Amino acid sequence: YAKRGNQKNVAQHPDLVVKAVVKEDARDLSLVVDSQLAPFVPHLGLIALGIATPKHKKPRIYRHGSLALDEKTQPINIIVDIVLSEPEIRYATVLKEHLAYLWRLAGTFPGEPIDGYDDDISGAFPQRIFHPDTARANASIYGQWLIIAIAMHFGGNFCPSSWEPLSWARCEIAKFLYDNAMYHVALNLEVLELIPIREDTP
Questions:
Q1: Residues near 153 by Cβ (< 8 Å), separated by ≥ 6?
Q2: Of residues 165 and 51, which shows the higher confidence score?
Q3: Band of residue 117 on the pLDDT scale cut at 50, 70, 90
Q4: Which of 2-11, 87-96, 118-127, 131-140 bottoms out in mean pLDDT, i.e. has the lowest?
């Protein structure tokens, strides 16, 4: 993999690749060190880098985790059997369910204002950090950089559907805290005192 190198599009967009790698490093999604350390990292798994440049979208760096050079090579994606381990993707129906909830709410309380709260959609896709033994199997070389992905990356077949169980667990925790936690009332008392509450509101 070191001799084969990265995808051809990487050489065509060096500025975009450098920007993407620096961004990953700044967000603690990658660990960037000198590539001369590569021969001294036990069980290092190298993955070819690529850069996607679709129209009307931001460039995105990816790893070609399915690239097999010959019958002896073992790309990282063969480790995960997506047929056996792929969780059901349910977030595609969330918007429809949320709109139906708002429709029923408006029908139950006609004429009443509905105070909605929408979180950033990126919160549904948290980056899960690898164990060190797994991280070193997700490395790439770009120039003088050895880039070790320490979190889930695009190109691995263990995401994004692998986020589903964790995302739904976060939903359940949020529901439980909304129904049962009271400590936040004291923390936000100054703000709550500024919010007028109608006594006849159910």
A1: 29, 62, 63, 138, 159
A2: 51
A3: low
A4: 118-127
49 C-beta neighbours (distance < 10 Å), count: 23
What's the N-to-C CA distance of the chain in angstroms? 64
Measure the CA–CA gap between 187 and 131, rounded to whole angstroms: 35
Could you please report the per-residue DSSP string of 52-120? E--TTS--EEEE-TT---STT---GGGGS-HHHHPPPP-GGGHHHHHHHHHHHHHHHSTT---------
Reported as a single tens digit per residue, the pLDDT across 169-188 is 888 888 888 888 888 788 88
Task: Answer yes or no: are the C-beta atoms of 166 and 128 closer than 8 Å.
Answer: yes
> What pLDDT does 37 receive?
95
Where do we find the tokens 């660990």?
Answer: 31
Give the residue carrying structure tokens 């429809």.
96
166-171-173-176 Cα dihedral, nearest 10 degrees: -160
3-class DSSP state of 30: strand
Check residue 155 and give left, alpha or beta (phi > 0: left; psi -120 to 50: alpha): left
Token pair belonging to 98: 């949320």
